[in-house]
Design goal:
Layout (H helix, E strand, L loop, with lengths): L1 E8 L4 H12 L4 E7 L4 E6 L5 H11 L2 E9 L12 H4 L8
The structure holds copper (II) ion.
Copper (II) ion binds next to helix 1.
């Protein structure tokens, strides 16, 4: 299991995040996608490495700007849940206020 973090700009609300999430989740090997709208940080969890070009294309398809790869986090072989997965229990941000 690999978590890769990317930076995406142009997202402003939950709907934006949802669009990006859907496009990225459709990529082969991708199991989960976490989007932080405020920072533009997108975390892609996959069972195999995903080509950066594929990430870029998916973000583009969703209508946002791919800014770049930021980090790889491999932390899922260490046993039961640690505090490194904000996606699991952070409440969903309300969309369009
Ligand atoms: Cu939006």
């Amino acid at each position: 299991m690999i978590d890769n973090e990317y930076l995406v700009s142009g997202m402003s609300c939950g709907h934006c995040a949802q669009s990006v999430t859907e496009e990225l989740t459709a990529l082969p090997g991708v199991e989960a996608v976490t989007v932080d709208v405020e920072t533009g940080k997108v975390t892609v969890r996959s069972t195999e490495p995903v080509a950066e070009s594929s990430i870029r294309a998916a973000v583009d398809e969703a209508g946002y700007t791919y800014e770049g790869f930021t980090a790889t986090v491999r932390s899922h072989t260490m046993g039961p849940s640690t505090t490194d997965s904000p996606a699991a229990d952070s409440p969903r941000r309300p969309s369009h206020a």
